[in-house]
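Supplementary Methods S3. Input chains for the assembly prediction are listed below.
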Amino acid sequence: MKTMADARKLAVKALTKIERDKAYSNIVINSFLKETALTKEDKALFSALVYGVLDRKITLDWVLDGFMKKPVSKTSPFTLNVLRTGLYQIMYMDKIPHSAAVNEAVKNIKQSKESKNAAFVNAVLRAAARNEIKLPEGNTPEEMSIKYSAPLWMTESFTDDYGTENAENLLMKSLEPPKVVLRANTVKITRGELAGKLRENGISAQEGEMPDSLTVEKGIDVSGNELYKKGLFYVQDYASQKAVSLLAPKSGSRVLDLCAAPGGKSFTAACLMENKGEIISCDLYEQRVGLIRSSAERLGLGIIKPAVSDAAVFNPELGLFDYVICDVPCSGLGVIRRKPELKYKTVNDFSHLEDIQYAILCNASEYLKDTGRILYSTCTLRSAENEKLVIRFKKEYNEFETVYEHTFLPHTDNTDGFYCALLEKR
Amino acid sequence: MALRNIVKIGDDVLRKICRTQMSFDEKLAQTLDDMAETMYKAEGVGLAAPQIGILRRYCVVDVGDGIIELVNPVITEKSGSQCGNEGCLSIPDRYEEVERPMKITVRAQDRRGNNFTLSAEGFKARAICHEIDHLDGILYIDRVRKKNKIL
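Predicted structure tokens for the full assembly:
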């Protein structure tokens, strides 16, 4: 007989795989959940452990280092993940007794290929469970890096760009679970009607801050829902909804969405245009264009025309537009609470992005009719990709003026971290 | 010691009724050792002889409190009932709910042929019942309650 899969064991396996293959956490978690039979409680524990350890890895490693003779970096990945998972339960899961966290970790390592490390795991975790764990209290980039489990380059970048206070608040907020924000497909249904139908389906949704938005708690599988399949709503954070509403595309106009996949901004534009006019939604890859196509069909937004096109290369066949949306590829520092693995990149991984972003913005201007508007946006909090890039653009293209510019910060705007600038051709 | 191949569902050997083990020799001891090693490697909690292609009545079980070797086991008493998920090393990546007795008493022989009786309850009873079923060509999927059945 085969034993029922063990949530903690599985979490360690998933973490080791994410690290080794540099894989996306949500993809690995979903495939593990599909392939193994776990009870409902064990599924929740498994996801909480994997996301939790990814969120707190820097903090956990710093604490472990204090209890170990050899540095964390010299420990094998599997043993280290057993330690991190155990320590995470000790530090952050109030409902799990310390003894259970230690015993399960020891059991796990004993049953693995690295069983020789069992005594070591036992000693380190027992010490951690016995002693009070004190994290640094100050707010220098070094201290915030440990406290909020963010890499030093990130705490430095936030401090430089937004000041110490904002940096600390947004780092704190980045560890809270994000809400899922839905937008009603207003071509088919109003927000009020949608909330009623969701309630009938057992999903409680609160009215959100944007006129057509609803929020639901994280963990509710909205895409499995019948109402989702009927195209009555889609998932989109406030900041993106707000940005498109500021662009305010008029019904009957022509819109170009240069980096459209998975399609959210195009959908919101189509709703605001009451599904009249034309939206060309481009992406570089056929597969991602397919995503836009299938969602647009589901939502019944017929004015959306998906197309494979390179956002940085001018394509005269597309014609001229009243509005151009460029939601450029970016470092994603505004969405680290949704994609915790971004924390383990280095700043060098982002160095090429500014050139691409600038090329896309310049190209966007080529498509614009006179008095047309560009919406430039990123989901990152790095001035080099945001306001500094826009300033550089306006120096070279002085016919553009900024109509609106805002950096959404998680702790003040209650959204993902997001930047948008509305540029008008004069 | 050596790892043995675990026979997968679809192979007829899993559906045969096994014969009584008559000789308690070095070969039996060797096979039982191999079965334990194979079971641990596959992260199993039990393995029966037909699962490694041997049609004889013996199995090994370890639910975390030590290895149990059962040669020619017979369940002599059953009481209560429990429902829970089971998986099988011969049926990869599937788990389904099966009803089993809560408590059992088993009479069996050890690897030297000495008779003994053993009582077990809960998960251990479940594992032993699952393995003894293998000796009669029964798989847990045969016992899955109708409403839950996938196959």
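Chain B has two helices and seven strands. Chain B has one domain: 12-148.
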